[in-house]
Structure formats: C-alpha cells, structure tokens
Amino acid sequence: MNYQWYPGHMTKAKRMMQENIKLIDLIIELVDARIPYSSRNPDIDELGKNKARIVLLNKSDLADPEANREWAAYFADRGVYVLEINAKSGAGVKSVQGLVREACREKLERDQRRGIVNRPVRAMVAGIPNVGKSTFINSFAGKACTKTGNKPGVTKGKQWIRLQKDLELLDTPGILWPRFEDQTVGRNLAFIGSMNDEIIILDELACDLLCFLRGNYPEALEKRYGITPEGSEAEILSAIAVNRRCYQKKEILDLEKAAGILIEDFRGGRLGRITLERP
Ligand code: G4P
Q: Which one, of 262, 238, 264, lies nearest residue 251 by Cα?
C-alpha cells in the first residue's frame, strides 16, 4: 500500500468523506494508540460536527498501558467517548456497542420525541490508512451480520451492515488523510510503518527512534539487544548490529540491516509496549 498522499488522493478522500458523512449519525474514529495525536485527522472535528463521535484507541496491545490510560482520560475530559481496543484479537471490541448507545442517546431521544421510531443509528468507521479499520469492521460486525442495500430492484446505494435492529454500519470505512504540516507527525507515522518505506532513509529513521527510546524506554533496548544505550545513536545502532551479527563483510558492520531489524522489532511490539507521544 502506498501511504504517500498527493493532492489528488486527498481531494478524492475528502469528497468521499463529505458524501458519506451526510448519511450517518455517528463516526467511529480509529486512531493508533501508539500515536493518538499523529494518527488523527486534522479536519475530523470540522467534518464530524453535529455527529455523535467515538474515538477508539486501536492497537492498544502495542502501546504503553499507562499512556493508554492517559489518552483515554484526555479524550474523556474533552467529552469524547473513548475505548482502548485490540481489533486484531477482539479485546475491548464487545464494549463498543454499549458505547455507541451512550454516544447516540441524545439522537435516539430526539427521534423519539419527534415520533420517529425504529430508525436505526447509522455509523461509519473512519481513520487514516493502516490504523486497523478493516480489521475492526470484521471483528465488530462478526459473522452474524447481514448486508442490506443494493438489493435487486432497489436503487444502487451504499452497503450497510446491520449489527442489531437499531444499528447499521457502513461496510466501507472512511479513509482520512493524516496531518502533513508537522515533521514530528511524519516521523511518528514512519516509525509505525504508515509511510511508504521506499521514501524513508532507514538508518536515519532508526537513529531518530533510538533517540526517543534512549530517553523514554532505555530498558527496552537493554532487554532486547543486551546493550547499554549509551553514546551517540550511531554508536547504539552499531552495538545492535554487533548483537544481531549484522556484517557486510568480515568486521564491517551492516548498519542498514541493523536499522531494519530495530524498526521491525518496534513495529512488531518486540521491544515491548511503547507509546511515542503523550497527551
Ligand atoms: P486499515 O483498514 O485501517 O488500513 O487497516 P487494517 O485493518 O488493514 O490493519 C492494518 C494492520 O494492522 C494489519 O496488519 C492488522 O492486522 C493490524 N492490526 C489491526 N488492528 C490491530 C490491533 O489492535 N493490534 C495489532 N497488533 N495489530 C492490529 P498487517 O500486518 O497489514 O496484516 P496481518 O499480517 O496482521 O494480517
């Protein structure tokens, strides 16, 4: 998948979102729990005004449990309904239905007052690429779901997944664009692998990651590579190369290989549960 965003991609994504948002009552916004700020779309508040909103801290299994709690509190303090989940294992996913009901209570009561009954809440899952939208839809909708819409003879429309009699989910997620303007955001997206690796200089990225880890999770490096994270980032990367026996030829270290190992270890959670930014 290509995570580079060009103006054309963004215009298309924006247009799709604007179309879909008209059809729904609730936005279920997925963010990556390791970077809840950097993986949020900058325009979601504007796009989603007048809609009920939920934020799901997905991939919480890869993020620091303490930071998960801090971020959950951060969103809750701002009146946003929030949950930590792991869409891959399904942990926390069952609780989403209860949260949907809470988030939509006002709308349901308003409907009732106006005499509108039995109109299901319509929801859409949205987020930037790779946050786990498809995984979540599969896990949330499960096998029991039935698709509605696009029946023969019915005007071609969107596909909805009926979850309960009072809740329908748009079957294709809304793809949001990330923030572009901020260097730190770009770097965080690159760390978690949501940026095209072809445009990334691997050993530079690894050195940036080492700089963060040395300051915030030094024990992760000690534990995984048996090294003391001291000296410059290049020295630490060399120590990792030695530990992982990354050599180009005899005695010449292959730092790029070591960089790749470090980054893949981080992305795969093998350095432990790490969060890159705090509220
Ligand atoms: P998207 O629709 O938002 O683009 O994301 P998608 O569901 O395709 O998920 C992107 C990757 O993130 C997938 O990994 C998926 O398995 C993984 N993922 C989703 N949710 C979670 C989670 O809560 N925890 C963890 N650890 N991983 C999660 P992949 O490597 O692309 O595919 P696969 O090899 O896992 O099948």
A: 238
pTM over 0.85: yes
Residue 151 has pLDDT above 70, yes or no: no
Spacing, Cα 193 to ligand 1 middle (Å):
11
Q: What pLDDT does 4 receive?
A: 65
Our answer on whether the CB atom of 39 is closer than 6 Å to any ligand 1 atom is no
User: What is the 235 CA–ligand 1 centroid distance (Å)?
Assistant: 33
Query: What's the rounded mean pLDDT across residues 65-70?
Result: 98
Question: Furthest-apart CA pair in the chain: how many Å?
Answer: 79
What domains lie within the chain, and their CATH numbers?
Answer: 8-171 (3.40.50.300), 201-267 (1.10.1580.10)
Whole-number Å distance between alpha carbons of 267 and 195: 13
